[in-house]
Amino acid sequence: MWRFYCPSCGVEYPEEKYLPFCEKCGGGLEVKGELPGRKKILGEGDTPTVTDRYRGFEVNFKLEYLNPSGSFKDRGCSYALYMAKEIGYKASVVDSSGNTGLSTALYSSRLGMESYVVVPKYASESKKSLIKKVGGNLIETETREGAYERAVELSSKYYYVAHQTNPFFLYGMMSIGVELSDLAEGRDIIIPVSSGSLLLGLYRGLLEADSKNFRIIGVQAVERAALKDYVKVFGVVGGETSKYADALLVKNPRRLGEIASVLNEVGGGVVLVGDEAILNASEELHRMGFIVEPSSSVVWAAFKFLIEKDVARDSILVLTGSGLKYI
Ligand SMILES: [Zn+2]
């Protein structure tokens, strides 16, 4: 048996009732009690690691873009939708401009549920086309905010994935921390940070596996640097615009306080990356054999920047999303 509670305002919800976020304060929820274990649905997780050496450092690339829908979101979506089915929902809804939408559509179809994916009109055509191909019902709105509002309306009827605040999603994400726990020892783990679900899942998974001696460095798009006033900023690289980081758009992550305290606790911080560095890093990664999306290449730009600043260590770079969606 499990139930939700809100760590921000202290509200406790009745047993086994799903809510996408706290009804009182809108914040992220947590679970009390026992959840069913994480299960593989389409082979997500256990992604490969490729080890290179670069300018005297060991660098381990964790290939999250090889997950079934081409992004790390499959870890969270697979579990969130598995729980939706367990609870008895017949359909899901999500607002997303890309990776979460595709992952939601994919796992909903696989689990025999309908899905409604609300995207702003300007979302990439290839992602929209893929969402429809895997069986998602695509709903287009004028703006990103409009997509959110429509999804919240539909959440009265359907399971709203709400990946920023849904504790099932975070529980699914923890598997990456468990997988990296041995390798993490004494190393930096460099990851893109937008909504924070990767960072929080990674951190909680590492703790679950008893890892202690690691540092996490977040990378944010320079125009969406929600963390910059709350954690150590290692620096800015690559200019003042970040339009190519289209998967790193979240301005105000719902779990911002928790994200910042994790980075502070592990002695980490953020590197802010702009378009020039994103494009260079993307080009280099492709030639190294990693076909990743621009928003994922920020970790390579950040790692090289940390070397320049003389603060780099042996590292793990999480490559989050596939570049095949951008062709
Ligand atoms: Zn609350």
Q: Which key features would you list for this structure?
A:
327 residues; binds zinc ion; Rossmann fold; 22% strand; four-stranded parallel beta sheet; globular; 35% helix; alpha/beta; single chain
Structure report:
There is one protein chain. This protein has helices at 73-87, 99-110, 125-133, 144-154, 167-173, 175-184, 197-208, 256-265, 275-288, 294-308; strands spanning 2-5, 12-15, 30-33, 49-54, 57-63, 91-95, 114-120, 137-141, 159-160, 188-192, 215-221, 233-237, 269-273, 315-319. The protein is of the alpha/beta class. The strands form three sheets. The chain has a seven-stranded mixed sheet with strand order 4-5-14-10-11-13-12, sandwiched between helices. It has a four-stranded parallel sheet with strand order 8-7-6-9, sandwiched between helices. A three-stranded antiparallel sheet has the order 2-1-3, with no helix packed on it. The chain is globular. The model has no long low-confidence stretch (mean pLDDT 95). Bound molecules: zinc ion. Zinc ion is lined by residues 6, 8-9, 11, 22, 24-25, 27.
